[in-house]
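Co-fold these.
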Amino acid sequence: MNNNDGLGKSDGEPHTHDPSEKGAARRVQALEEVAIAKGLVDPQALDEIIEYYERETGPRNGASVVAKAWVEPDYKTWLLGNGTEAINHLGFSGFQGEHIKVVENTHEVHNVVVCTLCSCYPWPVLGLAPSWYKSSAYRSRVVREPRSVLSEFGLEVPDEVRVEVWDSTAEVRYLVLPQRPPGTNDLTEAELAGLVTRNGMIGTALV
Amino acid sequence: MNNNDGLGKSDGEPHTHDPSEKGAARRVQALEEVAIAKGLVDPQALDEIIEYYERETGPRNGASVVAKAWVEPDYKTWLLGNGTEAINHLGFSGFQGEHIKVVENTHEVHNVVVCTLCSCYPWPVLGLAPSWYKSSAYRSRVVREPRSVLSEFGLEVPDEVRVEVWDSTAEVRYLVLPQRPPGTNDLTEAELAGLVTRNGMIGTALV
Amino acid sequence: MDGIHDMGGMHGFGRIPIEDDYVFDSDWQRRSFALAEALAPITPFGTDEHRQAIERIPPSDYLKLDYFEKWAVATESLLKQAGHISQDELDVGAKLFHADVGDRSPVTGPELVQAMKQGVPLKFPDDSQPQRFSEGDVVLVSSESPYLHTRLPRYVRGKTGLVASAEGVFAFPDAAVGGVGAPRQHCYTVAFSSETLWGREAEPNEVIHLDLWESYLEPA
Amino acid sequence: MDGIHDMGGMHGFGRIPIEDDYVFDSDWQRRSFALAEALAPITPFGTDEHRQAIERIPPSDYLKLDYFEKWAVATESLLKQAGHISQDELDVGAKLFHADVGDRSPVTGPELVQAMKQGVPLKFPDDSQPQRFSEGDVVLVSSESPYLHTRLPRYVRGKTGLVASAEGVFAFPDAAVGGVGAPRQHCYTVAFSSETLWGREAEPNEVIHLDLWESYLEPA
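Predicted complex below.
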């Protein structure tokens, strides 16, 4: 089957920002001003929330989890058996990460994560989701034609490798444990963490 | 069940025209100019097509069919048995009316017509479809909650009257034969035709 | 195609815009309609192709554009697909190259109106194809949702209905635009109870009828 | 709710916008995110209510608006629903009346960040509810599509899957926002083959997993 026939599929939603963004900025500003004026929100809290998510969450957290699993077999076993505990152990926890399941890529299986209904994502280990993860195209297509989607990311998964898709429809959040790249025996855990990409932990890239 | 809870249902798509209409007018003008310049279309033909549909099709045709069925039992039998033939007999035929089925409202049954996939409609007897018939709201809701939709049209169908919905998904087009209003025994066929409304023949109104 | 056009049963579209009671509200709508009708024979394209082109409009545009603007978008796209016009021409509103339409020429107004009054033959003899189902048969609707054009709405897929009538043999649109299935098939009016389609929240005492081609149905 | 948000398996949305690789592209997106987080405790609203408010954005807007503009629309709508702000206030960007928030007060930044780091308890003891299914059970997914909020996507309704694991007891979102079903239920990871979901056109050798509450499942 070839769905990439260029008919209809090439003309997706616009990817660039349109003039309505000015309206969005005004809308959010009005909401903030009203909420502050009415004493519903502490203005400083907004800055602190943003700072927390931008500084303390993000893919570097997930990368350190992955690197540790690559170098410590016991940790890997723990991580795959009880992802939440093993991740909490490294100090990562919080909203949208209360229950994390780690799914392992192997020579037989490639995993990829999505949330078709909204855009659930494991915040403590990956930060907030990138824009494309929240796009209608990704949400609609990755459960129906994951190989075709992965191919757009430059990742051709051979037919003999099973693709496992994880649609985050309830409270469990998913993190992909990528395969350790060959030729990395000499690297330290920190150097290994440096190789791990966010897309590698969503499943839209290898590492 | 009450779906009219005002949550989400009241904020539908905008019903009024937006500034993009200017873009639409320009778009169609460009298409027309190019098609004419390239000899693909006879400009006079466009006027003649429009004139044909605006003058020679329309609900008055359907109304005369209905009125005849009200006064001539044999014609009514024919109309319900072979709608296309009986309608052709009155001189109404053509695109989107090659196969017409007439469905009769009674004390036990109320019929209503829709096309959920596009907006199929029996052109020769009703003309082109009104805008609301083509709306996302009508198309999405009338197969799921016809009573609620009819209620918005001011038509409360008692639970003991079965609602029959006809979704025009193939080549058959549907025309509702409304019930003849009481107290019309003295009216001529032409006068009766004057009572028959387009919505009455779609099923979103009584006559 | 599981597209945005397949909206039967979807929630969220709000109240019916009953006040939009017009056929045409602007002259450009009339022109768009007439252009589609006049350009169909010369391009050529049929109703199924035009519908498919509308269905392929990106969903956010599909919901935003006026009905007749969608018609114009579809007509443009079919003309471009046929190689008769280019986007550049549409952008500037002028001819930039000669369109090779073979031995076809624009159809005149009287010829078009004559054809519109006559209609096009859509039905084939009842005995021209084997007929699998009859009135009263209980049928299960296919769960297939092809990427190409189909006239099987999502809201009845996998549901059980009753054949209310056999409507005769018609061209199968899915096959006509390149999908699978016999090119001519019997088509049936199938009745579904509201409970079958909508479960616990169904309104009482309702029957929903759809006209479904034989390929879409299996014995239940 | 069979809303536009339930888009798993839909066709027509085009290529993945891979180049949109940012979390925030503008400062107003940061503010919108932070406002939702900061206003949740005082309004109060939870994740399920906020999701539902997003799902109720009219479909044409849903497809057009930026993700964080949808968050702002949902936050506004929950604040209005709670009676804490009015549309007039949002229109003028100023306070017009006193909001009665009872004994709640704005949560400070450090408190909010502390809560965010801790997370919220979502799981109840495994034995707190009867458990109907176990790993290896074959289950049939409900065909119900309630008007209210649900976490059961359309693309698995009526399909047969295999319980891959029992995930424990969680609050049931459908019940939380006023729908039917036990307020706390076991939730299961259910695996579906791509052929089961997509039929003839399925890509080969794929398994799609969803986490589904017990109410959504019947023994197959």
